[in-house]
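Appendix B, record 7
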Amino acid sequence: MNLEEGFFFEPDAEGQVKVCNEFPGFTHMTILPNGRTVSVPRSHAVHPADSIPTHSRAEIRALLSRTVPRFKDRPFVVEKVCWCTDTMDRNWLIDIHPAHHRLVVATGDSGNGFKMLPVIGTYISDLVEGIKIPELMKDAWKWRPEKVDRVERWGGDGKTMDLDEMDGWKAPETDEGV
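Structure tokens (predicted):
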């Protein structure tokens, strides 16, 4: 693990290791019919031939070269963009939406949700059911609109990148995967 450059997940049942380059993430900006611009993930289920940007591939190769040199030239088995929701400060956001009091927001896992869900799920369900959560958690996970910059982020150049400005990831469009 190198918190500035990337990280690995333990091998799965088939022995494959997930390797990720570390940076604040991708967007995929799209203009909605109402004119609003939002980031919409490009689903690997719909576009299975999509890969990762050339830039990311190079960063992962460099990470492997520095951390596990014996893997640096091995072919990648699968390449896909991982869509996770990061908050600006990489901390959880688990709170009742300030303008929509019947909406509980639970996001900002910054790649940690898979391993934390068994623990964090209890607090999320408590919020949904109207049960108060401990003050320490409530304060740590509160809605925080004041966190609008990535000062507390690490990895890469600290900037979010839009996929449409990157090369090497997008498979050609077909009639099946539009």
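Remarks on this record: Residues 111 and 172 are 28 Å apart (CA to CA). DSSP finds three helices and eight strands in the chain.
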